[in-house]
Amino acid sequence: MGSEFDKDYYKKLRLFLKQEYTNDKYSVFPEMQDIFNAFKYTDYKDVKVVILGQDPYHGRGQAHGLCFSVKNGVQPPPSLVNIFKELQADLGYSIPKSGELTKWAENGVLLLNSVLTVREGQAGSHANKGWEQFTDRAIELLNQRKEPICFLLWGGYAKAKASLITSPRHHVLPAAHPSPLSAYNGFNGCRHFSLCNKLLGTDIDWNLNT
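^ thats the sequence. predicted structure below, dont judge the formating
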């Protein structure tokens, strides 16, 4: 991804972010040092699964650079609660007390939002500023990987990224978004966690309680 930082679109994005993070009229999440945590915790060569989100949580103290994840000690949002319920139904693990998914990231699950920053209380406020081009490029580079990857596309926004995944060696698993508004329509019962292990022939440690 290093070459992306030198492109014109990213230079414009960086200028926009500098203005946003230094503006005292509103806050921007996640903290600057956490923006690239998805890439920090899951190296390109180690990616086994990709979970795609849209943009970060926009509530104070929630977002920390991993999609669907919140910092330890923060109440898990409804979508994450439904993810944990599906995890329990699928693999039998008890509902985690913490909503932090760093362990998944460290075990090869890239938790990637399409847009990596957001204003407090303003969902989608940093959309169409350049992040989508950056993260689409990340997906394209993952598509070039020789080792198979499972792409979990939850919800319409994530499913639209399927066109970037063209290699037949990879597995694309679509489902409804885990939001309470749609989870009943195809997320509940998708069994994506066990299916990933089966398709990849490996045991990804999805258990957040150990």
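The chain is about 30% helix and 10% strand.
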